[in-house]
Amino acid sequence: MRNPHGTPIWYELTTADPDASKAFYDDVVGWTVDAEPQIPGMDYRMINIAGGDQVGGVMRLTDEMLGGGANPGWFFYIGVDDVDATVEKVKAAGGGVIMPPWTIEGVGRMALVHDPQGLPFYVMRGEPDEQSTAFDPTGMGKCNWNELSTPDQEGAQAFYGDVFGWTFPDTMPMGDMGDYVFVAVGDTTIGATMTAPDSGPPPGWRFYFRAPDIEKAAETVKAKGGTVHHGPAEVPGGDRIIIASDPAGVMFGVVGPGE
Known about the structure:
The termini are far apart. This protein is α+β, with helices and mostly antiparallel strands. It has helices at about 20-30, 65, 85-90, 155-165, 215-225, and strands at about 5-15, 30-35, 45-50, 55-60, 75-80, 95-105, 110-115, 120-125, 145-150, 170-175, 180-185, 190-195, 205-210, 225-235, 240-245, 250-255. It contains five helices and 16 strands. This is VOC family protein.
């Protein structure tokens, strides 16, 4: 059975050096990124976690991609019932299309789009009629939380609610930073939105992946050439997080059990 429309189903790191990315994230999160490409004709490697599941992939940025303005980054794929119809809704709701819909045989149909604030993400309908578990609120090695930092929180919520049917069931006041607004697909909370601060990381989607030991993850980030920008810090519910960047400057989050 497929995931409900609007559910995150895949996470992807674009990088100029997949081997360096593997060495970093394998140690920080506890993944096993494939050592060799898995798709003929392109350098694409699967992110494997304990138990045999996969959370996403690592794609090498070619010279052509880099020359065209592509940058290293984390992206997610949002599962939809109909890619072409969703792309039309994206445009009607004020977003835009970066790469129009295309199909990869045996994988599915997808498109790269952006919201009205210019922040990119993919929409996809996988070809196999299977449920993705790449997003799991408590799954080890999986994405536990999807966080949108945006210059227009109200406008972004209207967009994602219209296109994907997301709801925003609760808020957490953060003082001068405004409200932290939770995002749900059906009965499942998948993340939150917040207003991008004037200083700090640029607006965008940030993804938090679960590791067994947040202190160890933080120390490993620093030892492997990355930077910890925040934390370890406790969040509601008792977990602890860090916000970090890898050696290429790509922002990501790690979440782990509380003390």
